[in-house]
Amino acid sequence: QIGQYQVNGGTNFKVVLTPDASKDFDMESETSLYVQYDSNPSGANWTCRPSTQYQYDVQVCDLTVPLGAEVAHVAVRANGFYAYNDISVTYDAPMTDTFAGPIGNTQQINYTYNVTPGRAFKVEVTPNQPDDVSETDIYVKFNGVPWAGDYDCRSINPDEQTDVCEIMVPAGASTATVGVVGSGFGVTYSGKVRYQ
User: Is residue 23 classed as helix, strand or coil in its secondary structure?
Assistant: First the structure.
């Protein structure tokens, strides 16, 4: 295992493995590059594993991160005793934000973020409710303020379940606004946003 990298859907993730033949003293060592999202890669579980004809070929995984992926796992497996490699990883780490607060019955509180088209936008909001009927719902709107009749994504899970909206930012969008709507009295909430 080389490392784990926080990623965001729609972004580029690139790994280049360059074997160094000058340091392979027995000239028989080989390495294999593996990349997988949200779990450790293995021989049977990988998103990218470049095939090579020659043991010293450069191996490249140049990927677009899928919607829903949050961590890219990179692993190199060696066969032999003297394998030596240079590895470079290039990616755009997502930005994150957290927010929390109290919210009144039918009140809407908005949070706005600058976004990039073609990248994932994800928001999760968990209500902390005093009873069995109070809750929160979330709405997301690009280039505008959401409400119950106009939104690009919404989540209206019942009761104390976490509401989640994950959506790709459309062409032409420059902002995403999250609307948290309260239902009931004495509700507080906490939220997390991942975006670029």
Answer: helix
Max CA separation in the chain (angstroms): 72
Reported as a single tens digit per residue, the pLDDT across 7-58 is 988 889 999 988 766 655 555 667 788 999 999 998 889 999 987 656 667 8
Q: How far is CA 116 from the centre of its chain?
A: 14
| Strand positions, DSSP E, 54-134 | 59-64, 71-79, 85-91, 95-103, 108-114, 120-128
Cα distance between residue 189 and residue 141, in whole Å: 20
Residue 73 is encoded by which pair of tokens? 């796992």
**HSE, side-chain direction, 13 A CA sphere, residue 65:** 31
pLDDT in tens, 59-103: 899 999 999 899 999 998 877 655 567 788 998 888 999 999 999
Closest CA to 138 of 120, 124, 119: 124
Distances (CA, A) of 175 to 26, 111, 115, 142, 164: 56, 10, 5, 6, 18
